[in-house]
Amino acid sequence: MPSDSPLCLCFHISQRKVWNYLRIHQPQRASQLSECFGAGTGCGWCRPYLELMFQRWKAGALQPDDLPVPSEYAWQRTQYVQEEGLVLPPGATPTDDAPPDRSTH
Ligand code: FES
């Protein structure tokens, strides 16, 4: 079952929502996933993951691959946005400023 973890962090779109969109609307191109609540139209960080999910769905997979750990995924997005000097569009969720806690207890 696809995860409820956010795939598009800018617009709070979960992996499950994208997978359901693929199943129901059967887009012909990965770029059509932008019609799924605007997935990929913010900072662009999630676009490679959207493309991977689209390819996996096209190949007939029953579920998508797991995403990276959510805190790592969010931190990688923060670094991407900062390094690219991106300005997020209106309505997009701001990036987290703190790196994930990688300590093991
Ligand atoms: S995380 Fe999807 S566009 Fe920013």
Key terms:
single chain; 105 residues; mainly alpha; two-stranded antiparallel sheet; 36% helix; globular; binds FE2/S2 (inorganic) cluster
- Beta-strand residue percentage: under 5%
Rounded Rg: 14 Å
End-to-end Cα distance, whole Å, is: 30 Å
Strand order of the largest sheet: 1-2
- Give the proportion of residues in helices: 25-40%
What number of domains?
A: 1
State the oligomer: single chain
Shape: globular
Task: Give the class from helix and strand content and strand pairing.
Answer: mainly alpha
Instruction: Report on the biggest sheet.
Output: 2 strands, antiparallel
Attached small molecules? FE2/S2 (inorganic) cluster
Mean pLDDT: 90
Give the total of beta strands: 2
Low-confidence stretches: none
SSE run: EEHHH
How would you characterize the overall build of this protein?
With 105 residues, the protein is mostly helical. The chain has one domain (1-86). The protein is built from 3 helices and 2 strands. The protein has helices spanning 15-25, 47-58, 70-84; strands spanning 6-8, 13-14. Strands 1-2 form a two-stranded antiparallel ribbon. Helix 1 (15-25) crosses helix 2. The chain binds FE2/S2 (inorganic) cluster. Residues 8-10, 40-46, 77 line the site of FE2/S2 (inorganic) cluster. Residues 8-10, 40-46, 77 line the site of FE2/S2 (inorganic) cluster (FES).
